[in-house]
Design a protein that fits this description.
Elements (H helix, E strand, L loop, with lengths): L6 H10 L3 E11 H14 L2 E5 L6 H6 L2 E4 L7 H13 L13 E4 L6 E4 L2
Helix pairs in contact: 2-4
Length: 118
């Protein structure tokens, strides 16, 4: 996740690199209706998710490959991103392990358990 000042240029660069650009606004196709196509795109290509806020510039809609809604009401951008990722990964993100990880979190009912791997 990052902030980029020249977002138009960044989106264009990533599209040139064959990224699938997923726009999320409350005006898009409902996520359950689009999830199969999104998962298929995510398997074949890298994914850029642009989460809309109050005044999304019209150019964003033109640059995106798909506009998807998590809700039809205004909502937290962070919550929208979390819901989108959960749907895309089908909940498997909770058990995913990274090859070059430095830390591993062991799920706990209370407290926290973090193991240093390297």
């Amino acid at each position: 996740m990052s902030y980029v000042k020249d977002w138009k240029q960044k989106i264009r660069e990533l599209k040139e690199q064959n990224f699938f650009v997923l726009i999320s606004t409350m005006y898009g196709i409902n996520l359950p209706e689009a999830i199969a196509e999104i998962r298929k795109a995510a398997e074949a290509r890298n994914l850029l998710i642009v989460v809309g806020s109050e005044k999304m510039p019209p150019d964003v809609y033109e640059l995106g490959d798909m506009n998807v809604a998590v809700t039809s009401q205004p909502s937290s951008e962070v919550a929208v991103l979390g819901i989108m990722l959960d749907w895309i990964f089908g909940g498997a993100e909770l058990s995913k392990e990274f090859q070059d990880a430095r830390l591993k979190i062991i799920p706990q009912e209370k407290g926290k358990n973090v193991i240093k791997l390297r």
